[in-house]
Design a protein that fits this description.
- The chain is an alpha/beta fold.
- It is about 50% helix and about 15% strand.
- It has a 7-stranded parallel sheet with strand order 3-2-1-4-5-6-7, with helices on both faces.
- Strand 4, helix 4 and strand 5 form a beta-alpha-beta unit.
- The longest helix is centred in the middle third of the chain and has 28 residues.
- It is globular, with a radius of gyration of 18 Å.
- The relative contact order is 0.14.
Length: about 260
């Protein structure tokens, strides 16, 4: 029997880490509703799921909109019978300091990265309670602990994810709903590719990734699949006593900050 047989999961974000997590849960036997806003990414994931025979459906959903999130939760419940797992992996990463960052980008960053977690919880927790509990996993970042220059909105949002995770974990422990966050280091995703283009314009992507990988004690950047394995552990019964925590998948990056 697969570890997630009989479980229903909603995963936000259909590129990079979100895509890898959705596929990992479906491969583990879960019925998965993957929610994303990018049409091409949604189509690619839907085709991938069909080719590989996964119980994974893709829904276009703007996770900043209350009605869209409400409808996505309702769809998961009506089509799969309930809700056991929520993974909040959708993200928006603007660049700039406080003077360079527009109010529009600031607000969208907080809406996508933080408010979407509130919305999935607002509509999803009541359904999880009906099942006797569940697991919520929020994608944070090492930048919620120690950030680089020029990412004021993103760093603020990920620090908020850490605090929101702890608050949710305390509030819903009596409901047997475990809530944890994951803080990745540099992971090879479309978002990281955009970061490379911003911080090192004109430099080949692989060269930038090699430089960034060298900053991690393990000497490389990570893969979305490595993050997905940690998410699978946290959602499983193997992590039944884990809640309110943040788990690093950063190649030792934070352990080495300030160490020469």
């Amino acid at each position: 029997m697969k570890e997630f047989e009989g479980k229903v999961a909603i995963v936000t974000g259909t590129t990079g880490i979100g895509r890898a997590i959705a596929k990992r849960f479906a491969a583990g036997g879960a019925d998965v509703l993957a929610c994303g806003i990018e049409t091409a990414a949604n189509q690619e994931l839907a085709l991938d799921a069909k080719v590989n025979g996964l119980s994974l459906r893709v829904e276009r959903c703007d996770v900043t909109q209350s009605t869209a999130v409400r409808d996505a939760v309702a769809k998961a419940v009506s089509e799969f019978g309930g809700l056991d797992i929520i993974v909040n992996a959708a993200a928006f990463h603007p660049f700039g300091n406080v003077m360079e960052t527009s109010l529009e980008d600031w607000n969208r960053c907080l809406m996508v990265n933080v408010t979407s977690i509130y919305l999935l919880g607002h509509f999803g927790v009541p359904e999880m309670k009906k099942r006797g509990g569940g697991s919520i996993i929020n994608l944070a970042s090492v930048q919620g602990f120690a950030c680089q220059r020029g990412v004021v909105a993103y760093a603020a949002s990920k620090g908020a994810v850490h605090s929101l995770t702890r608050a949710l974990a305390l509030d819903h422990a009596p409901d047997q709903i475990r809530v944890n966050s994951i803080s990745p280091g540099s992971i090879r995703t479309p978002m990281l590719e955009r970061s490379a283009g911003n911080f090192a314009p004109g430099v080949p992507i692989d060269e930038v990734f090699q430089r960034w990988g060298a900053a991690h004690p393990l000497g490389r950047i990570g893969t979305p699949e490595e993050v997905a394995e940690l998410a699978a552990f946290l959602a499983s019964e193997r992590a039944a006593f884990c809640t309110g925590g943040d788990y690093l998948v950063d190649g030792g990056l934070l352990a080495g900050i300030g160490v020469q």
